[in-house]
Amino acid sequence: MADLTDLYQQVIVEHNRSPRNFKQLAHPTRRAEGSNPLCGDQISLEVELQGDRIADVGFQGSGCAISQASASLMTGAVQGKTEAEAEALFQVVHAMLTAAPGVSVDSAKLGKLAALSGVRQFPMRVKCASLPWHTLRAALRAVPTPVSTE
Amino acid sequence: MTTTARPALDVPRLRAEFPILATSVRGRPLVYLDNAATSQKPKAVIDALRRYYMTQNANVHRGVYALSEMATAAYEAVREKARVFLNARTEQEIVFVRGTTEAVNLVAASWGRTNLRSGDEVLVSAMEHHSNIVPWQLVCEATGARIRVIPMNQQGELELDQYERLLEGPVKLVAVAHISNSLGTLNPVADMTRLAHEHGAVVLVDGAQGAPHIPIDVQGLDADFYTVSGHKMYGPTGFGLLYGRERLLDAMPPYQGGGDMIKAVTFARTTYADPPARFEAGTPHIAGGIGFGTAIDWLAGLDRDAAAAHEQDLVDYATGRLREISGVRVIGTAAHKAAVVSFVMDGVHAHDVGTIVDQDGVAIRTGHHCAQPVMDFFGVPATARASFGCYNTREEVDVLVAALQKVRKVFA
């Protein structure tokens, strides 16, 4: 049975309370908006690319603990990565969030992001965790936004 | 249909009539506190749906055979029940629709496009559900009329002096909820209707949250239109009512074209049926209508005053208990409220609240409740909302409060 402590791991609660990279950038080169209108999660994401490397990334917005912590963890994880590396990480996180019950998740590649592994037991909340990631992808691909995961 | 009069509200006996209330969620007894979204259904209604499909199913208003006559009679009998339920003057004033959303859209599209002109104004209240805002925006875009908002105060009560001032303008229609789905405010619609009529405006009352909780008298309210959602008053989804004053319905063009709404069709010209058939194109939700009729019967067997008093006690009790929890703020503190308690918890988003209390079997709604302007007004992204039906208990409120204490622990 799904357990609350799987969803609200200490890392999640802590990142929700003190989100990292909750900021506007001085020199953003990419920007995207993400919003889940039915549930109200909303995120503005800015990226400063130097070449194809993410030199800085910041987000602002409001939403549930899962969406805020996911955005905070994501900005930490992709800092300094190339676009291709960020895309690879997106795939790993996406696979983790949508893995079928019982399927084991390769947490080696995840690092701190493994704190989001409990979300998949709460299908209604997967969209909260994935919103920042889809917003990042939209920013990197310069896709017209807002994106939504509803 | 037989109904048994009950001297007072016997809640345990009421609960026994709702099979779902005996079920468990996540290993805990279901505590269903999302009645403003949809109520649960008594066995009588569930049985009526089954009985219809098992023994009566045929299309209505068409066949000459016995089964179709039986289905038509059972379906049309609901119209008289609905007339009595709303205290309408005639059955012609009762239009069967899918629900309140369709009812509002019908009035906006048919009455609105016929009667609204550029420069006209439609007043909607600051606490309306999106379904009583967006249809008016659509018709205003099409006609050049414009929407003005009846403001509310910090308690979530409409500002009636401002309302009177707005009525001085070229107002053609006022759209207002009987009871707010997000705040629980019981609006003074009889007074509002009187004032609107003094200024020549027509009034639509959104009764989605009204009909389940208080006896409705459309003549007493003097409403021009009143909308009812069957599934929020213990009936099936997909069926509701539009009450319309007869002379208004008579002058309105059809909403949708199709079968059942015509007198005669040629390729050159079609003449439309009289109300209510004019507004009921296509095969309706027959089983839903019959189930809705059973829900009306079921409510008629309830002591409505006792039920309203019981629900009021739950609102008062929940409000008091929620205030015991540190960091909880009740949103919507009107002097007159019914059935709904919205609240926020400092530092915790409503969706996290909803997920955590769900672990204890507690079903509450979290989010913007299709009332984003209300959330904006109170400066919150979302609220958690407990909403009551006649079968809820103080003990269930206690389970909610205990679950909310766990929310505090998770986010401590």
Summarize the structure.
The complex is a heterodimer of chains A (150) and B (412). Chain A has 150 residues and is α+β, with helices and mostly antiparallel strands.
Give the topology.
The complex is a heterodimer of chains A (150) and B (412).
Chain A: H1 4-7, H2 10-17, E1 30-36, E2 41-50, E3 53-62, H3 65-78, H4 83-98, H5 126-141
Antiparallel strand pairs in A: 1-2, 2-3
Helix pairs in contact in A: 2-3, 3-5, 4-5
Chain B: H1 11-16, E1 24-25, E2 28-29, E3 31-32, H2 43-56, H3 66-86, E4 94-97, H4 100-115, E5 121-125, H5 134-143, E6 146-150, H6 160-167, E7 171-177, H7 189-198, E8 202-206, H8 218-221, E9 225-229, E10 240-244, H9 246-250, E11 262-265, E12 270-272, H10 286-300, H11 304-323, E13 328-331, E14 340-345, H12 350-358, E15 362-363, E16 365-367, H13 372-378, E17 383-387, H14 394-410
Parallel strand pairs in B: 3-15, 5-6, 5-7, 7-8, 8-9
Antiparallel strand pairs in B: 1-2, 4-10, 9-10, 11-12, 13-14, 14-17, 16-17
How would you describe what is shown here?
The complex is a heterodimer of chains A (150) and B (412). In chain A, 39% of the residues lie in helices and 18% in strands. By secondary structure, chain A is of the alpha+beta class. Chain A has one domain (4-141): Sufe protein. Chain: A, CATH 3.90.1010. The longest helix of chain A has 16 residues, at 83-98. Chain A is globular, with a radius of gyration of 14 Å. With 412 residues, chain B is of the alpha/beta class. Chain B has two domains: 11-41 and 303-407, Aspartate Aminotransferase, domain 1, CATH 3.90.1150.10; 48-300, Aspartate Aminotransferase, domain 2. Chain B has 14 helices and 17 strands. In chain B, the strands form five sheets. In chain B, strands 4-10-9-8-7-5-6 form a seven-stranded mixed sheet, with helices on both faces. In chain B, strands 13-14-17-16 form a four-stranded antiparallel sheet, covered by helices on one side. In chain B, strand 8 (202-206), helix 8 and strand 9 form a beta-alpha-beta unit. In chain B, helix 2 packs antiparallel against helix 10 (286-300), helix 11 (304-323) packs parallel to helix 14 (394-410) and helix 12 (350-358) packs across helix 14 (394-410).
